[in-house]
Amino acid sequence: MSIEVVNITKSYKNFTALENVNLHIPEGELVALLGPSGSGKTTLLRLIAGLEQAQQGSILFNGEDNTNRDVRERKVGFVFQHYALFRHMNIFDNIAFGLTVRSRKTRPSKEEIREKVHSLLRLVQLEGLAHRYPSQLSGGQRQRVALARALAVEPKFLLLDEPFGALDTKVRQELRRWLRHLHGKLGLTILFVTHDQEEAMELADRVVVMNEGRVEQVGSPEEIYLKPANPFVYSFLGRVNLFRGRIQNGRIKLGEAEFTAEQGVSEGPAIGYMRPHDAEVSLHPPQSAAATAVQAHIERITLLGPLVRLELRRLDTKEVFEAEMGRQRFLELLVEEGDVVYVTLNNLSIYVESELQSVPTPALTPVHVTV
Amino acid sequence: MSIEVVNITKSYKNFTALENVNLHIPEGELVALLGPSGSGKTTLLRLIAGLEQAQQGSILFNGEDNTNRDVRERKVGFVFQHYALFRHMNIFDNIAFGLTVRSRKTRPSKEEIREKVHSLLRLVQLEGLAHRYPSQLSGGQRQRVALARALAVEPKFLLLDEPFGALDTKVRQELRRWLRHLHGKLGLTILFVTHDQEEAMELADRVVVMNEGRVEQVGSPEEIYLKPANPFVYSFLGRVNLFRGRIQNGRIKLGEAEFTAEQGVSEGPAIGYMRPHDAEVSLHPPQSAAATAVQAHIERITLLGPLVRLELRRLDTKEVFEAEMGRQRFLELLVEEGDVVYVTLNNLSIYVESELQSVPTPALTPVHVTV
Amino acid sequence: SAASQGTGTNGSGEAGGSQTVELLNVSYDPTREFYQEVNAEFAQEWKAKTGQTLNVKQSHGGSGKQSRSVIDGLEADVVTLALAYDIDAIAEQGLIAADWQKKLPENSSPYTSTIVFLVRKGNPKQIKDWDDLVKPGISVITPNPKTSGGARWNYLAAWGYALKKNGGDEAKAKEFVGALFKNVPVLDSGARGSTTTFVERGIGDVLIAWENEAYLAVNELGKDKFEIVNPSLSILAEPPVTVVDKYAEKHKTKEVADAYLQFLYTKKGQEIAAKHYYRPRSAEVLKAHTPAFPEIEMFTIDELFGGWTKAQQTHFSDQGVFDQLYKP
Amino acid sequence: MKHVTEPAYVRWSLIAVAFLFLGLFLILPLIAVFTEAFKQGAGVFLAAIAEPETLSAVKLTLLVAAISVPLNVTFGIAAAWAIAKFSFRGKNVLLTLIDLPFAVSPVIAGLIFVLLFGSQGVAAPWLAALDLKIIFAVPGIVLATTFVTFPFVARELIPVMEAQGKDEEEAAVSLGASGWKTFWRVTLPNVKWGILYGVILCNARAMGEFGAVSVVSGHIRGMTNTLPLHVEILYNEYQFAAAFAVATLLAVLALVTLVLKSLIEWKTERKSKAEEDYYFDASGEKAG
Amino acid sequence: MRKSFLRRGFLPGFGMTMGYTIIYLSLLVLIPLSVLFLKATTMSWEQFVGTILDPRVIASIRVSILTSFFAACVNAVFGVLVAWVLTRYDFFGKRIIDGIVDLPFALPTAVGGIALTSIYAENGWIGQYLAEWGVKVAYTPIGIWVALTFIGLPFVVRTVQPVLQDWDLQMEEAAATLGATRFATFTRVILPHLLPAIITGFALAFARALGEYGSVVFISGNMPLKTEIVPLLIMTKLEQFDYAGATAIATVMLVASFVMLLLINYLQWRINKFDAAR
Ligand SMILES: Nc1ncnc2c1ncn2[C@@H]1O[C@H](COP(=O)(O)OP(=O)(O)OP(=O)(O)O)[C@@H](O)[C@H]1O
Ligand SMILES: Nc1ncnc2c1ncn2[C@@H]1O[C@H](COP(=O)(O)OP(=O)(O)OP(=O)(O)O)[C@@H](O)[C@H]1O
Ligand SMILES: [Mg+2]
Ligand SMILES: [Mg+2]
């Protein structure tokens, strides 16, 4: 089932949690809602589920207006961040709950319920734990029970609020894989919340980046990583280096490095963003004539499994920044802490402060760069 | 000051939290205590600080027995996981606490205390917040206050329990850098707890891996990543692929891939571990005569910033595994989801089940492999 | 310090070294105003006689409870209780000489009272005598004889009436009193509680009460609402008084305590008693107040029940006659 | 939240039922007390309150509260420290013993002190030798009151201290603070509201206790009558208006303490709310 | 190990506070209460049993237990309702209502009893209307029940309220997303969770009601075998100077209360443990 969020605004007393949010989620997709704490992710999810009411806007399921429909009629599967399992019921009863509370007419027979619960237990790989209580399960197991409970009522789609937030890295990786598998198998529309960019990138078909109650960007993981719509998205998705400089005479100066700005850019302070893996480290000055490289001193080398991260300090501006490379490349380089290297700044994104000063945080507008 | 933990065993009622732990922490090092939840990290830290008493074993500071010494006399700086700031005191009073509670004889004058607190506030970059209360600070700021408070009493070393556990990724990265900086500046011995392997790898000079109350391995980040002492450490530090197979006639067979085992290995089931970045993906079968490559089907491609992760399914055993490579390498490869590729399994670690079956989880012993 | 003042008397009386003497009079509930006046009068007299300032402290409560307090250590110099039995209980503990009742005239009871009926104005149920109380449909208010001393007087009065009427037939008397208590809808724990129930809550057609209580109720709570009915036969209630020898000796107040009780027998004392609706022993004073104290034929405890100890034993102990006849 | 709560008509009828119940069982009696008190006009009311015996009863009541409340506060703090900050065998039994006075009939509460300190009592010989008076004097009243109000502060404080955890104490000790200093400078400031709350309840009950005190008081006018006893005496003397007037003193006292308590709760609530707010803000700031 | 017993970890003061607690508890509660047992032992076993099994004692125990039980039941139901309304809804006067709940603690019980009697007697504010319907409240077991409901109310409200305040609203939301009606959510999800607190409040109210004297004597009518409560019977025994009999009954009541409280504390401890395991 597709979900359409139209022009939703939601405020609490004196605080606007969501402002004019529009979102389309096509049927069968696995969509991640990504954003920092307090950006309104949970609020949006709860609005879609009908646990909250918006001041304005509407929510359509398959084109049908659901804005004023009761939670109970929306047939949404909702998995809460802390699972919200019923503590005094065992796993079986937890999963069966949604079926046993139906009115007598629509309630399946005891036998059918048993069947159903056991098939769900098999699905979430928890056969044999039916008689345990939630307190006797590990976090990952609880998470799966919460999922099974939501699936028992055969929802039209699934909403998950930080499903793996409270879990160990190891368990998390496992469950992620399992969720994707489940998605493939059931073909459900799934919308899940996370504030972990790696999780969003790895799991989702489509990522919605939120900030301060607004949707900043929607796109495939690759799109938003490679073509961030603005500095917020840029720095929220993965590590980023930040260089301060100026635009002067159509040239962008970041310390000793210089780039050509596009035509008609006003002069003034500018900020350059660059991903650490776009920093090209070499022992010798680059061949190219353009001054896109700077000299830097290696302060620390960290081996991070497949990656190696160098912490560098520019000799010109004394700014600290990072470079990342594959292990192989690092082994070829043969550098040590304390060495001085040349770093070419590739794929820089330059932003200048917008002239519109009415907004609280200085709005940055992108500047196209040619080397 | 160096810390020596000798043969420590600590049990709660019917549960052994630490079993025969030995550990040496040389002066001036920054050591990470890494392990899954419940592995006894906090317990060990509290024992060293004297907040808990062991049933057995001793703890030496600079070779001097401290086992039965009171917390107050140990001169340990302890930073609690949830900071444990004094809620009803402002930041200044929090930091000054350790000095003001001294007996009159050893207590510095008011003026001296003020000096000291302000220099600490400068150190943790919180000048100007001296009169705020803990509730008026963000998580990261609280963390730094807790540190300053611990440093005020000029401890001989610093113990930190999951110092960045409760913080956002962004803030976390910042504080990590800051802590390393501090360590360099003060030259203190620092022992910190974490369950995030990346944090341990990035920050520490030396990593102690714990599991179920035992120390599994101690070493530099590189050592434990590259030469894990056992499968637990292997799989706890970074992602790992796991292949099941057999040893037969001195050959290790993992599906269609074959390797030569060392001499005198008993026959039977074996497990091969491999890091995703050790999987070499190519479109063509490798040149080498050895059968170290398998064919696999690309099920999913995930772009993770600097890295690209492929989820692969072996055509022979249908096992799913992962391969990771740099973005550059991926772009060179030109593969898509659904393609079939050849994957060379490099740097495999093979373990066979130990004949000693007394231990609860089957003990695995490593087997040396030659291609 | 408050503690030692509380019950003790600092009098070093006889020699007059100190000018202040304290007495503690432990009494029962309805005597407060009466003793307040007695105290003032006597203190004046005592001052004139000895030059000492006398300060009489009063304690009031249920008679049995007060007696128990004295037994348990409430250091009363004099006790002025509702029935001899309560003082006997104190005497049993050796605090008072066993023959205490002989020490003062008239059985140590300077004033008496009797049991009468209080009915609503106009006497709508036409209650004239005891026999009317056992009629079906009549609602009688009296407290619980097991907890209230006053109630025991009520009970014994009814018993005595039935006994006399039936020529001493105990079984008939038992039946009569049983029938009477069948008509009781509320058993308050004390006499004042019963009065409140009757007066304030408007429950019951007749309240059995002491004469002085009945007068007080009428005067305090409504002359226009109630009237008093005198039965043909009633009991002579003799509230006794005595000095608690042990404590008086300890406080060295024996002399003043004796004088205090003697004062009750003087004309002045008797006048005050009559003013508070207690029947004075003095014939002269009684005559002066005749309209208030009409002639009623009365019997005493000793005559019909062989004294309080015996009456208590037979009627009010656990499994006693009251427990047997009371079947609500 | 709207969608998950009850429909408005259910909500309002529940509120109405609650009001009806509280009205019948709590508010009406309170109103009854006040109307009775003023039945004969403000003059009688004021006279009853200004009467010397009332005043001495007020004094005694305040004195008793002033002794027994601090005693129970000290005990409550000590017990809460031992129970909340340490684990030991038999905690349940200890907690139950602390609860016990809740379940002892006030009559019995008074009786046990009579049995102990009365002149027939177990301790009588010593008391006689020392010429000490416990019952039918202020000490007995204090004892009985203390007994009856025994659990209030401890019961209030134990959960608060337990919820507070040991973190801050651990931090203080690791910074070199001694036990006393930790207690005074860290624990106490953190539970001060809990203590106050306990004090208020304990005080209300101490001033209002009737049964137990009645047994041990001796009812000596102007000396050992507390306010509740004085109310009874006035009532028994058919001075209903005066009795209720004095009772309103107690009711007002109760209401004042309750208002105080509400104020305290409101303050703590506001404080924790402010904290929460800040958490949200802080996390927002972190992200930015 | 001795050392560790005394020190009990890092915090000081265990010995001192524990010692003080035990001493104070002993002096003020245990020793005085033990006198009760001592006194009861002055009776022979036959006498003791005879006292307890006396029909009047049995009847009063029945009255006490039944009225206390029903009062506690009503308090359990309405206590939950009041706690629910106070924690969940916003309405005018909420704070005042919240404050007034503690009134029965503060008002002298006798005043409460008198006030209730004046309301529920046949000529009282409410009693007169009830009388028209033929319902008598004061001077019947219903009156006792009214008084005991009055004094027991704060117990249930104050034990349930904090639990409701801590209650995770998400569990209700979860039930709603699973299609449960409000009623089903309450009975099947919320109530089971509140149950321990309700039982605790119930038991405290029950224990307190069993011992209540001051307010009941005014409204009960004190009719032996009908509306006589146990504490009144104890008083009666005392009036007859029968200390042993009084203490015998008191002892039985005390032991019953103690066992019940122990049960509650055990129950709570179990639940806390269960929660801690989460
Ligand atoms: N009931 C409420 N009353 C007032 N403000 C609220 C309420 N619920 C949420 N908010 C505010 O709305 C904003 C968005 O909250 P929301 O829970 O949707 O954030 P989130 O993106 O889910 O954050 P997190 O990652 O921390 O869960 C926050 O700033 C929060 O303070
Ligand atoms: N007071 C206690 N009583 C009983 N068991 C305890 C106690 N404290 C800790 N444990 C147990 O000891 C084990 C180790 O606990 P510890 O707190 O040291 O783990 P940890 O490694 O710090 O875990 P985490 O990462 O979750 O903080 C856990 O299984 C825990 O359940
Ligand atoms: Mg959220
Ligand atoms: Mg820990």
UniProtKB/TrEMBL annotation, chains A, B:
A GO term from the CC aspect:
ATP-binding cassette (ABC) transporter complex
Q: Name one GO molecular function term.
A: ATP hydrolysis activity
Where do the TM regions start and end? none
- Keyword Cytoplasm applies: no
Q: Enumerate the SMART domains for this protein.
A: AAA
Q: Which residues form the ABC transporter domain?
A: 3-237
One family name in Pfam for this protein: CysA_C_terminal
Tree of life domain: Bacteria
Q: Which UniProt keywords apply?
A: ATP-binding, Cell membrane, Membrane, Nucleotide-binding, Sulfate transport, Translocase, Transport
Task: Tell me which InterPro entries the record gives.
Answer: AAA+_ATPase, ABC_SmlMolc_Importer, ABC_transporter-like_ATP-bd, ABC_transporter-like_CS, CysA_C, Mo/tungstate-bd_C_term_dom, P-loop_NTPase, Sulph_transpt1
Spell out the protein name for this chain: Sulfate ABC transporter ATP-binding protein
Q: Which organism is it from?
A: Brevibacillus parabrevis
TrEMBL record, chain D:
Q: Which UniProt keywords apply?
A: Cell inner membrane, Cell membrane, Membrane, Sulfate transport, Transmembrane, Transmembrane helix, Transport
Source taxon at top rank: Bacteria
SUPFAM superfamilies associated with the record: MetI-like (SSF161098)
Q: Which InterPro entries match?
A: CysW_permease, MetI-like, MetI-like_sf, Sulph_transpt2
Keyword Membrane carried by entry? yes
What GO molecular function terms would the record report? ABC-type sulfate transporter activity
Q: How does it sit in the membrane?
A: Multi-pass membrane protein
Q: Where in the cell is it found?
A: Cell inner membrane
Primary subcellular site in the record, as a coarse category: membrane
Q: Give the ABC transmembrane type-1 domain ranges.
A: 58-261
- An annotated GO cellular component: plasma membrane
Q: Does the keyword Cell membrane apply?
A: yes
Purpose = Part of the ABC transporter complex CysAWTP (TC 3.A.1.6.1) involved in sulfate/thiosulfate import. Probably responsible for the translocation of the substrate across the membrane.
Its quaternary organisation is: The complex is composed of two ATP-binding proteins (CysA), two transmembrane proteins (CysT and CysW) and a solute-binding protein (CysP).
What protein name is recorded for this chain? Sulfate transport system permease protein CysW
What are the top taxonomic ranks of the organism?
Bacteria, Bacillati, Bacillota, Bacilli, Bacillales
UniProtKB/TrEMBL annotation, chain E:
Q: Which segments constitute the ABC transmembrane type-1 domain? A: 61-264
Q: InterPro entries per the record?
A: CysT_permease (IPR011865), MetI-like (IPR000515), MetI-like_sf (IPR035906), Sulph_transpt2 (IPR005667)
Q: Which domain of life is it from?
A: Bacteria
Major localisation? membrane
Task: Please provide one cellular component term from the Gene Ontology annotations of this protein.
Answer: plasma membrane
UniProt family annotation: Belongs to the binding-protein-dependent transport system permease family. CysTW subfamily.
Oligomeric form and interacting partners:
The complex is composed of two ATP-binding proteins (CysA), two transmembrane proteins (CysT and CysW) and a solute-binding protein (CysP).
The name under which this protein is listed is: Sulfate transport system permease protein CysT
Name the lineage: Bacteria, Bacillati, Bacillota, Bacilli, Bacillales
